[in-house]
Amino acid sequence: NNNNSSRVPSKPLLLAVCAACIGGTFQYGYNISVINAPTQPVQNFINQTWRERYQTGISEDVLTLLWSTIVSMFTLGGFVGAMIGGTLSVKLGRKGTLLTNNIFALLAALLMGLSHSAGLFELLIIGRLLTGINAGIGLCVQPLYLAEIAPTAIRGAMGMGTSVFITGGILTGQVMGLKELLGREEHWPILLSTTCIPAFLQLLILPWFPESPRYLLIDKGDDEGCKKGKMMTQLLFPFQNRWDSYFAKKPWELFTDRSLRWQLLTVVVLNIAQQLNGLNAIYFYAGYVFKQSGIPDDKIPYATVGTGACECITALTCGMLIECLGRKVLITGGYTLMGICCILFTLTLTFQEASPVFPYLSMVCVFAFILSFGLGPGGVTNILTTELFTQNARPAAYMIAGSVNWLSFFSIGMIFPFIVLGLKQYCFLVFLVVCCLVGAYICLVVPETKNKTFLEIQNEFLSSNKRKVGMWHVIWRTEGSLKCSFAGLNEFY
């Protein structure tokens, strides 16, 4: 769809989003939440296996260490996936990388499904590492693919597919873990192996859709292949010679490129904040709040599913609002509302025993915080990572952003229990500071990117932050002249 005035994705574009996301960020969300339900059954399996091997029971400390290793291997794999995702997207193409990435998910499903019958809990560790690699590559490459097949007018709405399918994956994992489905103790190997289903779906559907035309033209110099892409049917000029010297940047080259300094700083700040903004703390306290509110223990998992549904709904809402309100308004507003919720949640937790009303107010704060996150930071962060960089820097930018995100994910998982233990309900004052600082940074530094080409965004970013005039000259020589020479490439580039 090359009509920029259209604000509604065509059916083929929507299907392409679904095909890319079902085996991409859906897997990330699904494997984050699906591991929660079988916590006790897997620990029982580890204990039983240990006893059969060594004829003695496992100590509580070793059991906790093994379980933590199984869970945290996902973040380590995600870091590895983020590091290789950008390189693979250049070597194999965006679509080719997404298809190849399913190998990790299928191997993980096989290993985790066989772990019980084989009596090897080590297979769970390897399987979780592979699911992490799959998620890391998906988070890196899928937004690239969506941004590069989308017309400028609906690039934000299509990019929200990343957030929608993450939250959809979280919700699906929560639902699949209910006792009515696969949450019973004897079903946990099947539950963990269901990660193969999204992989099979993507392998069946995604091959019917084209490779990114931008990748074919710029990275591969394949103008014929590019013309077959839906976005490039109007371009009738042979560009191959023009792009022979246009190579993708390496991650370390971004750190030395002064023209990209503020863009790089921005995506690093946003990706750190996405993990350190307090969302994990909210989910940590959700069970306690629900229990204080009088919800029976056996019903709390259903209330938790409600939080997943809440985040999924806000991601869909953000997708509908992003082209109307813009990226900057949504993400700044989201962090502002999250900061307010941090204050209110601290107060309601502090006075939890003062009145029977306060537990219910705390419950409102839980849902309000999740709504605020889904409305802005949850979806817009990935889109900005795409839009702040031009074609040659984008894969490397995603490698850096993904690495920072996964390292922050791992770090908050390690230090968060100590923050809660030390500060208790006052831990949200720490997250309040994070939300306020990030909101202020976005207001002062990040320009609005709605309805702008990648080149226009880059130029405005440099202008708004008072970059040197010499930087303009470099960009104009390497990219701006192409815009003048090929007016039809403006939307594409």
Order of helices and strands: HHHHHHHHHHHHHHHHHHHHHHH
Major beta-sheet overview: none
Strand content: under 5%
Structural domains: how many: 2
Low-confidence segments: 1-5, 229-246, 467-493
**What CATH first level of the largest domain would be assigned?**
Mainly Alpha
Shape: globular
Helix percentage range: over 70%
The overall pLDDT average reads 80
First-last Cα distance: 16 Å
**What integer value in Å does the Rg equal?**
23 Å
Q: Count up the helices.
A: 23
CATH architecture of the largest domain: Up-down Bundle
Protein name: Solute carrier family 2, facilitated glucose transporter member 5
InterPro entries: GLUT (IPR045263), MFS_dom (IPR020846), MFS_sugar_transport-like (IPR005828), MFS_trans_sf (IPR036259), Sugar/inositol_transpt (IPR003663), Sugar_transporter_CS (IPR005829)
Membrane topology: Multi-pass membrane protein
Pfam families: Sugar_tr
Describe the structure.
The chain is mostly helical. The chain folds into 2 domains: 1-209, MFS general substrate transporter like domains (Growth Hormone, Chain: A, Up-down Bundle); 263-451, Growth Hormone, Chain: A, CATH 1.20.1250. It has helices spanning 11-22, 25-33, 39-54, 60-91, 94-118, 122-149, 155-159, 161-176, 188-193, 196-205, 213-219, 223-228, 251-256, 261-276, 279-292, 300-325, 327-350, 357-375, 377-387, 394-423, 427-445, 454-464, 469-485. α15 (279-292) packs antiparallel against α18 (357-375). The longest helix has 32 residues, at 60-91. It is globular. 48% of the residues are buried.
